[in-house]
Amino acid sequence: MAAPPCSSLILLPLTTLLSALLLLPAARAQSAPAPAPSGPINITAILEKAGQYTTFIRFLNETQAGNQINNQVNNSHDGMTVFAPTDNAFNNLPSGTLNNLSDQQHVQLVLYHICPKFYSLESLLSVSNPVRTQASGQDGGVFGLNFTGQGNQVNVSTGIVEVPLYNALRKDFPLAVYQVDKVLLPEEFYKAKAPAASPPAADGSGSPAGDGGAKAPSTGNPGNGSGRMSVGLGLVSGIWLLCMALLS
């Protein structure tokens, strides 16, 4: 029996080797572990990755608003929307703007940049104004934002400030984060307060309390002067009668 040619002996191992190489990626894919699920959403991490939001991050931490955002977007079905002012936006504020705010207004300012619902840019074009924010006043009134625009351009207005939205740091549900190049100052901070009414007088007469009101001038004793006049007239009458009696 004739021996197989040498070429056949060489091709056989090459065929086996090629088959093994072709099957190797499939075997690796089957044995590779599944990718780990992404972690919970963190607003601070999003802003830190984008850069230029140091001041806003500090305010989110000081007011605990950052924790509120993280809790809601990771545990609710409504989502949230954040309008993030850049560091330049804070630097361009008029001198003393932030220092003149009370502690309560500092919190209101941060919450005014947060909406308790997820909004895409498309939905902001058709939303009913004003849009509710997380900020509210002492009377319970909610601070709102107004949105206008056309095409892909969306503008946000507070009544004091208007700025376009053009850069989405995050746009997927449940959290949308949009860059704003101006700090959104609530109109409620600038509304003039009505002067307080003066308290009514204690006696209801309009005169200052404590003075007892205006007193009528004293008329004195009506009998003192008239009595002396009557005595004088009586004496004159008596002398006249005596003279008439002597002459008669």
What report would you give on this structure?
There is one protein chain. With 248 residues, the protein is of the alpha+beta class. It contains eight helices and eight strands. The protein has helices at residues 6-31, 43-50, 54-62, 65-75, 87-91, 103-111, 121-125, 223-247, and strands at residues 80-85, 114-115, 131-136, 142-150, 153-157, 162-165, 168-170, 175-180. It has a four-stranded mixed β-sheet with strand order 2-1-8-7. A hairpin with a 4-residue loop joins strand 7 and strand 8. It is globular. Residues 1-29 form the signal peptide. May be a cell surface adhesion protein. Residues 40-184 form the FAS1 domain.
Compact description:
With 248 residues, the protein is α+β, with helices and mostly antiparallel strands. The chain has helices at residues 6-31, 43-50, 54-62, 65-75, 87-91, 103-111, 121-125, 223-247; strands at 80-85, 114-115, 131-136, 142-150, 153-157, 162-165, 168-170, 175-180. The protein contains 8 helices and 8 strands.
